[in-house]
Structures are given as C-alpha cells and as structure tokens.
Design brief:
Growth Hormone, Chain: A; about 400 residues; mainly alpha; about 75% helix
C-alpha cells in the first residue's frame, strides 16, 4: 500500500476524477486516434489491388495478433505495473506507422505489419484499461470505465473525417504520419502516469488464462463480447467498401454520428449500470446493435447519420457495462487477466467476423452479409438473459 499513488489512497471514499485519471484519458485519446484513422485502411488496400476476402484477411490478422499477445500478457499484467505495457505498445505502434510510410503495399508486407500493429495495440489497449480499472473506485467501476472510454470514442468522431481530408491532400502516407505523431505524443504523456497499484495473485493456486475464461460466471460475458466483436468487424472492415459500391463518397458522417451518440449515451447513462445492474443495460444495447447492423444491408441510408446514432447508442451502453461485468465476475487480483480475456474475446469476434463476413460479401453481396451480422448479434440476448451473472444489487454510487 505504501507505494500507491496518494490520489487513490482514500479507502471507501476513493476519488475517481483525479489528475492521473485525466492523463490516462489523454493517452487513450491519442492512441485511439491512431487506431480510428485506420478505418480508411481498407480503401488503401483496395486501391492497391486487394480483393474483398484479402482485405478481410489483412484486417483480421490484426485482431488475431492482438488476441495472442493478450493470452500471453494477461498473467504478466496481473503481476506488473500496467504502465510498462502502455508505453511498450505506443512505442511499437509508432514504429509500425512509420513502416507503412516507407514499405511498399505488398500482400506479405501488409500482413506482417498488421500482425505487429495488432500485437502492439493489444499491449497498449489492455494496459491503459487495466491501469484505469485499478484506479477506479469499485462502486463506480462502470462509470469510471464508461467516462474513460469517451476519450477513446472521441477520435472516432474526428478520425475518419480527418483521414479523408488528409488522404485528399497528402495521399495515404498522410494518415500514417498522423498515426505516428499521435503514438509519439501518447508515449510522452505515458511517462507522466503515476505508479500503478494492484494486488498480485497468490502463486499457489494461481489460475490460468483459460481456467478464468471458461469459468461458469465469466463464459457468458466473454461469449457476448465475442458477438459484439463480430458486429464491430462488419462495420469497421466493410462499411467503407460497401459505401463505395453504392456510390456514397463519404462515410465520415456515419462514424461522427456513431461516436457522438456513444459519447452522449455514456454521459447520460454513466451510472445506471452501477446503480441498477449490468444486465438491464446490456439487453437493450444488443437490440440497438443488432437492428443497426442488420439494417445497414436493407437500408443503405443507415450508412449515414441515422445508422451511426443507432449503433453508437448500442456501443455507448454495452462496452463500459460489459467491461465492468467482466472485471467483476473474475477475482480482483486477476484484473490484468480479466481485461486481457474480455478484449481477447472481442478481438476474436472481430477476427472471425472479418474473415467470414468478407467471404459472405464476396459470394453473396453486402446486404446478406449485414443481415447475417445483425442476426448473430441478437443471438447474444438469450446468453446474457439466461446465463449472465448479475453483479450489482442496488448500489448507490458516491459523488465525484
């Protein structure tokens, strides 16, 4: 306890909104700006002769790489300061962004760079969320994760729009340069984060990644995280090519509406799951996402503001609530593993979705692909309703 930062040693009255919390928010903002600007990366691949299935594979290996690194890092993060993983991830992402600017867009090279990018992103993302979860009061965990996540969503509003402007003026090399600059700035801020604090698990009887994953309480949560990942892949891997095929020149407005809707939803509903329960929030969120994704295939205008608002509401409700639930169904001393398992489950869904939906789109078109994606999301409803564990019982969150 003596090595804990002073701003979090406040017992049951521990503060949430501290200077270090906002430094972490800034780091997440910069790291996710470098991530969301790559929404246009499928167009870069398409421009250089990649087929839809090739695009799905290249986009998908990012996720599988992140999954493997999280399986590897979960137990290490339980025993080590999460700042190390944040800094290592940002340094690696900076290097990969520079490599995109220098190396030719050959299939093998793009695949290798996406593998590296996924691994470094996995380290950064899991590290920064683990750090934040350890610095959030237990009875305000949903709020802490939800508001923190706004810093990761804000770049979604600006990233694709900025990317379109940058590509128009400087070609795709411009977005790689912006991504590199964001990672460098995030790394420098990361040096200012205070020392992490955590309760290391006992060596005797320590549980493995897979024993925690397949625990009766955690498996339903991770299954829904997987399903959410498939929905994300259908949007982030294929919305831009679908829009291009429909002669819709810009998709930036969709992602802006998505991000703003998600941010507003988190601000309005931030404390609801802490007070009334996680499942009450997750169920309608799955409905919003399922209808939004499936609707894109039937009503192409949903690729604009309307669809962005609907899916953004779903994301704003489900992600912080699912994250908090994942952290609660696994013992606190395994918080690094819990974040690794949760994000790995979502990444696995993204990986599988990118490949399977790429094959469906190439064989049958985008409309059937989005219909299938929407149905898959709705399959998460019976899982969370009948098998999900409720961890909140009429809590009364404290003041800021």
């Amino acid at each position: 306890m003596e090595n804990m930062p002073a701003d979090i040693i406040e017992g049951n009255n521990r503060k949430l909104y501290t200077p270090s919390y906002f430094i972490a928010c800034s780091i997440l903002f910069l790291g996710m700006t470098s991530y969301y600007i790559f929404v246009l990366f499928p167009l870069y691949l398409e421009k250089n002769g990649f087929s839809l299935s090739d695009i799905g594979l290249v986009m998908g290996v990012f996720s599988i790489s992140a999954i493997l690194i999280k399986v590897r890092l979960g137990k290490k993060m339980d025993k080590r300061d999460a700042r190390f993983f944040v800094l290592a991830g940002l340094a690696g992402l900076f290097s990969v962004s520079i490599a995109y600017m220098i190396l030719p867009p050959a299939g093998f090279i793009m695949g290798i760079l996406r593998v590296m990018q996924g691994a470094f992103y996995g380290s950064f993302f899991t590290g920064i969320f683990t750090w934040t979860s350890r610095h959030s009061p237990p009875d305000r965990l949903g709020e802490g994760i939800g508001i923190f996540g706004i810093a990761g969503l804000a770049p979604m509003a600006a990233g694709p729009l900025i990317g379109e402007i940058v590509v128009a003026k400087f070609s795709f090399a411009g977005i790689f340069a912006v991504a590199a600059a964001c990672c460098l700035a995030g790394f420098l801020l990361g040096l200012m984060l205070p020392k992490d604090s955590f309760l290391p698990p006992r060596e005797e009887g320590s549980r493995s990644f897979f024993s925690l994953l397949f625990d009766r309480a955690s498996l339903p949560v991770m299954s829904v995280a997987f399903i959410f990942g498939t929905a994300s892949s259908s949007v982030f891997s294929f919305l831009a090519p679908f829009a291009a095929s429909m002669k819709i020149d810009e998709v930036g407005s969709f992602f802006t509406a998505y991000a703003l809707s998600s941010i507003l939803t988190r601000i309005i509903t931030g404390r609801l799951s802490d007070r009334y329960g996680r499942k009450l929030i997750i169920v309608p969120a799955l409905v919003f996402i399922g209808l939004g994704v499936g609707g894109i295939g039937i009503f192409p205008f949903l690729m604009s503001i309307v669809g962005g608002v609907l899916l953004g509401m779903g994301h704003g409700l489900i992600y912080p609530t699912m994250t908090a639930l994942a952290l609660e169904v696994i013992p606190e001393e395994y918080r690094g593993s819990a974040m690794s398992i949760f994000t790995a489950a979502s990444d696995t869904g993204q990986f599988m979705g990118s490949i399977i939906y790429g094959i469906i789109a190439e064989a049958a078109g985008f409309t059937p692909m989005y219909l299938v994606a929407g149905i898959v999301v709705l399959c998460g409803l019976p899982i969370i309703i009948f098998f999900g564990k409720e961890t909140v019982r009429n809590n009364k969150p404290g003041a800021a």
